[in-house]
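Q: Entry one of two.
A:
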Amino acid sequence: MDNGITTLDYILNKFNLSFDDKTRLPIEIPDIGRNGLAELFRELGFKSGAEIGVLAGEYSEVLCRANPQAKLYSIDPWVPHRGYTDFMRKGTFEKAYVAAKARLAPYNCEIVKKFSLDAAADFTDESLDFVYIDGDHNFQNCTNDLAEWSKKIKYGGIISGHDYIKHKKPTNIHVYEVVRGYTEAYNIRPWFLLAAKTVIDGIITAEARTFMWVKMPAAGPGSFDK
């Protein structure tokens, strides 16, 4: 699928969704989790993508198993650094790196041991079919990841990420705020949330939800001057 309209139509049809100028955003897709997103990438014929923030490689493996014909770049510095919100001990990252290498060795996966923006500089703009962002969750780094990796996605590709959740107490996790601000600033319509935010029998649920949108012309940094 080589353009945003085709990809978007597929998603709307697959999940029996409708969209117009009056549709409230984000559009909820309650019966698909991020494992289902990996299957969607396969259905769309995606051949290349990146996960930003890999740790021990569990979700990279999900992406690889769901779509073995695709080339995945698993990107993480695997070192403690200022601004990272989850783990700070060096030994934790070293163990995770060893685990990721072992877990991903059987697949069509290239491990890239770099900081997110350093790795992004190595990719040509509009060269990837998808990105899944799950790295640093603070405001600055989350914003940088969305801005820079969006440039690397082809029109008709998917920009997605993890941990979309509104926290009741002050926190250094700002995915919710960044995604809402980014989609509003660049008039990204529509965009989607996967899995329900409350437990419902028979429906896939997740507290930390996955967001996604299809890259369309004139959506995101650098798009308006093309």
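Q: Entry two of two.
A:
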Amino acid sequence: MRKPLTVDLTELTYLMPGAALLLIAEFDRAKQILGNDFKVQLIKSKTARINAVLDQIGFSDICDTKLGSEELDEAPDELVRHWRFATGTRINDQTERAFVDIQGRIAPALQEGMWVGISEAIGNSALHAYLEPRGADSGRMGAKRWWMLSQVRDGVLGVTVADLGIGIPRSLPLKWPRSGLTKILDGIAGKGPDERSIRAALEVGATSTGQKHRGKGLPQIWREIRSEPEAQISIYSNKGALHWNGKRNSEQSNEFQDNIFGTVISWTVPVYENADGE
């Protein structure tokens, strides 16, 4: 009999959305692969808010354990109650179907202005992210799955989308002619091969599907977020990362030693009461 995996959250005091979503996605993936053999024992964080967040975004449900927080039961914390979690699969080209079962369970603002970019990003994830074995281990899910966190708080919409596929650096050579891709990469300066691959993915304009509307997801989100002075966006894929901070009007990039074996896109934008930005 498989022994439970003990996850000690005692010293966890802060969670970035991207890290939180990767945590959820990895455990959800493991549960789907292992089935009844998936057994996890959670040790609560000493920070009540962390326990409440992990309950709110579904991590506790995946692990079949409620962390709970009596301190927050009577007065929900503003940093906790706005988070919404969603996950789904994509098996065809009708990307919008990915949202049918999650309407009303994600932040309402997602339904008003960014469906195209989000749909394309998730659609591209399903089309390309799972073309080959992931490489982190031998287990494979039977479905192409994505995960999402969203919230609207204090006039700011935050969205984080993840897949646990092969990542942008490995999917690019499968989607584009190698000669053309090499030419693009040779013209990009960067801190490492994975970070340069992210930049290349933002530049390419054709797609492996041959459909004109494809290939716009990631570049479209990147372009539209950068047009908003108060917005921020980060793209992580395998070992690479690219960030834009509208408030500082600055771009940063990283090439890490560790591999996340997948892709995470996270952004924040201001939301308004009406289309005129008021």
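A: Comment on entry two: The chain has a mean pLDDT of 76. The CA atoms of residues 25 and 147 lie 6 Å apart.
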